[in-house]
Amino acid sequence: MIGLIGKKIGMTQIFSDDGKILNVTAIEAGPCPVLAVKDKSVQLGFDQVAEKKLKKPQAGYFKKLNIAPRKIMREFLKGTLAEEIKVGQEIKADIFKDGDFVDVTGTTIGKGFQGGMKRWNWHGGPMTHGSMSHRRVGSIGSSTTPGRVFRGHHMPGHMGAVGLTVQNLKVVKVDVENNILLVKGAIPGFKNGYVIIRKAKKKGNKPAKAAAKK
Fold first, then answer.
1. Smallest Cα–Cα separation from 22: which of 11, 7, 9, 32?
2. By residue range, what is the domain housing residue 107?
3. How many domains does the structure of the chain reveal?
4. pTM score
5. Are residues 142 and 187 in the same domain?
């Protein structure tokens, strides 16, 4: 398997072997029961939930599998050992080990409606000489050419609450017994927010690229 579903617990600090302080994020990674094994992917579930909180088709799906209902379901591409995985089997944090690099995907914290200076880091207008336009939008285009506002123009609006992937985060420690991963650095989202943890793509490809150049 190349990934797991998890939950962000929060951030803390630990000491490395050489006595340095490391800022890490604690992630509850699994256990994730296998719900389906397909040709190219494996479907996993996470976070047990009461059956009454599900819609009837969802509850029937879990009842047919004879697996306790899960709140989150996601699919992952098969790894090298995926053919041996069976429905009902639990995938735990032990698929990762200390020193691995992972890509973590989550939903960023929502900031509500924000102005352009906060949302896009605008410099703002003059603060002196009688200027009355300090934080305003200002001109957004010409009335003659092009005679319209280009799509995607940076404007005030809703900020945050979007999907974001942080790549190449180092796994500092794996607590197999409690299914906890300590990952160096910060990850998207708020506490108790759901995240997807996958083995890093770019970090694992570097040796292969270097070998090809030689």
1. 11
2. 3-113+163-213
3. 2
4. 0.80
5. no
